[in-house]
Design a protein that fits this description.
The protein contains eight helices and no strands. By secondary structure, the protein is an all-alpha fold. α4 packs parallel to α6, α5 packs parallel to α7 and α7 packs across α8. The radius of gyration is 17 Å and the shape is elongated.
Length: about 150
């Protein structure tokens, strides 16, 4: 069995961030919501390590392998963290009230289509609308492009 190698400095940083979140969300004089603390900690984690906390919302709209792949794009500098958050925001906006959970092949296609227009806000929105209303059309587009 292969032994897992852990970078102790990154682990220590992760524990400090978790402690900070706990302090910020439980202190009564701090007007910081749990959601805001979660978002701040994710930004901090993304900037300083290869870790990110998966929110309940993200778990509901993306499969774990889709999320891992998507987040790995930021770690490999294929997309910026800002683009990652922009797409996550739109995924939430369009899919939070649905039963859709996007898997890895679907997410790959969505990101590929969005990338053709350099991740413009309008294109992200239109791509997700297209997926929600005609998921089979998006699959056809992928095979046509390739």
């Amino acid at each position: 069995m292969k032994k897992l190698k852990i970078d102790k400095s990154k682990l220590k940083h992760l524990l400090e961030v978790i402690k900070k979140i706990d302090e910020l969300t439980t202190h009564q004089d701090t007007p910081l919501s749990q959601e805001r603390a979660f978002n701040l900690s994710n930004k901090d984690l993304a900037d300083h390590s290869h870790y990110r906390l998966l929110s309940e919302m993200e778990k509901s709209i993306l499969t774990l392998d889709a999320f891992d792949y998507f987040y790995s794009l930021t770690q490999n500098d294929q997309i910026s963290y800002e683009i990652f958050e922009r797409i996550m925001y739109h995924l939430y906006l369009y899919l939070s009230d649905t039963d859709y959970q996007i898997d890895l092949p679907t997410l790959t296609t969505l990101i590929e289509v969005m990338s053709f227009a350099d991740y413009q806000e309008k294109v992200i929105a239109q791509t997700l609308e297209l997926y929600i209303h005609s998921p089979e059309l998006l699959t056809n587009i992928k095979f046509t492009v390739h």
